[in-house]
Amino acid sequence: MTIKKHIPNIITLLNLASGCIALVFAFHRAFEMAFLFVALGIFLDFFDGFFARLFKVASPLGLQLDSLADMVTSGVVPGLVLYEMMISNLAADADTIQYFPYLGFIVTLGSCYRLANFNIDTRQTDSFIGLPTPANTLFILSLPLVLKNTESLMVIEALTNQWVLLLIALLSAYILNAEIPLFSLKVKNFSIAKNAIQVIFLVLSLILVLLLHYLAIPMVIVLYIILSVINNKFLKKQL
Question: Considering the entire predicted model, what is its pTM?
Fold first, then answer.
């Protein structure tokens, strides 16, 4: 029983370790490796809760530890990535806006607020209110990968524009904390009818990944938000 009690917290600490390693890679602008370790951290973040429920050892300590680990993996890392993207695009004579890239950490502030609020919000047991920090992090970390692997001038111009990146930071902070219900991907039964929205999302996501590769990642996150809004309106009509 003692070993089981510590397994979820060990997994959470591995999530934190993954986030720390991702930070190092982000500092060196090795964005592919940063993305890989963040994805690993998010994967571990799913399983710490899974094993806590499986072993029936969920605790207040585990809840707080989880948020602290997420603050690094899904809070500091995306802020740093936006900072690095913005600072790399500064003109050599841009003395007047030399501090502009620090605004990328608006994402970190928004993530911190969401994680703290999540711990005390009893409405988010089976679904989410606002975009979960891991989803937002995958969106942010996919941007430099899209930039590196695209030939679209429109995409390149957008992702090298300081104001566009600032807008992304502001929108991210907003959507993280917006009062928008978002469906959960947790499947509690095998009824296709009751999991229709999840099935549609997964099928469309797979198609996007096969067709668009890196560009599919931010589009999948946007698709998740759009389908949630549509699903919310449909449920209201049903009621």
Answer: 0.88
